[in-house]
Amino acid sequence: MPEYVQRTDRPAMSEWIEQMAAHFEASEGMPLIAGRILAFLLVCDPPERTAAELSLALAASTGSISTNVRLLMRLGVVSKTTRQGREAALYRVEEDRWPELVRHRMQRVTGLEELTAAGLRMFSGQGERARRLRTVHEFYQWLAGEMPELWRRWEREGKPKLRF
Amino acid sequence: MPEYVQRTDRPAMSEWIEQMAAHFEASEGMPLIAGRILAFLLVCDPPERTAAELSLALAASTGSISTNVRLLMRLGVVSKTTRQGREAALYRVEEDRWPELVRHRMQRVTGLEELTAAGLRMFSGQGERARRLRTVHEFYQWLAGEMPELWRRWEREGKPKLRF
DNA sequence: TTACCTTTTCAGCGAGGACTGAACTCGATC
DNA sequence: GATCGAGTTCAGTCCTCGCTGAAAAGGTAA
Q1: Could you tell me where the beta strands, DSSP code E, fall in chain A?
Q2: Most buried one in A71, B56, B138, B139, CB count within 10 A?
Q3: Which residue in the set B41, B109, B138 is minimally distant from A102, CB to CB?
């Protein structure tokens, strides 16, 4: 049986991929197929796959693969490598870009700081109505301030050293 | 004009509420009406409102208000106070519970650690396919480990002292 | 019990979006 | 130019889900 027919080595892997996809749908708002591609590319062997192989492996239409692979490339977690000749392009996961993905996700949360600030300006920061809003604003402000430090720590301490 | 007819003090406020709602929809996956309720309760004066008042102020059906107010109560950011007699219940925002809301949101992200761990077990952590997965896993592991410290810092340093 | 007000429930509507499949575009080879 | 495979686009389908409005349920007072 040619390799590209292999859908997943074992049923457990197929289940795991579905769980990953479900997680990304819930926590990142990603389409299911995008999550499946990501999970599959994380553990498939060999690590690079053509669009046609993804389509077969995940039982998704070529159109869906195209759309979602481009979404994942836009997010930076999948890259395309082309080769000379008429060969199909190969896609691979860019596992090192993962922290950036999460960072962007969190920035969408801390981004609320700007809106709460605008609200406070609107009420001149005075009175009871501003009190509630200020409480929330101060939290987002603090959180937004912590983030740069957090990612700096990842770069310095968290990120595992190169293995060889 | 009776107070409950007032929809918003100014057009700007109505716009601000819509922006807040849009933000919650994007970043928390919350229905628009839930976000509107939250934003309105943050800045309305007086701070407590009945369901009927919310319905009027936000031009939403009683059914939607009921559903979404209960969602917000489940999340802990809105509370209900009942009074004796036939009076309607009053809803208010619990601005101090906001950090918990965000914490839960982030836990959904770090929750991926369990899935990556399961994946590594599945491949015995060996070989090339495990390498990519381990890279991602180590990031989530590190991030999940940082969170408790982060929230402890909020409790100790970030959280503004009581004002009086 | 009856009346009345508040809140919940739920069937149905409509919008949005994921997904498909086929047509089309693009590039490369011959 | 002609051909062929890969990739993209897009009209259409299906399904989910937010939302409504009306009916039902709950709860209080007379």
Answers
A1: 78-81, 90-93
A2: B139
A3: B109
Rounded-to-integer distance, Cα A62 and Cα A64, Å: 5
Q: How far is CA A105 from CA A149, B49, B101, in A?
A: 16, 33, 16
The answer to whether residue B142 neighbours chain A at the CB level (below 8 Å) is yes
Question: Is residue B127 very low, low, confident or very high in pLDDT (cuts 50, 70, 90)?
Answer: confident
Q: Does residue A43 contact residue B123 with C-beta atoms inside 8 Å?
A: yes
Residue A45 DSSP symbol: S
- pTM for this predicted structure: 0.87
When scoring A122, A123, A134, A155 by the number of chain B Cβ atoms within 10 A, the one with the most, hence best to mutate, is: A122
Computed over its alpha carbons, how large is the radius of gyration of chain B? 21
Spatial contact of B135 and A36, defined as CB atoms under 8 Å apart: no
pLDDT in tens, B143-159: 999 999 999 999 998 77
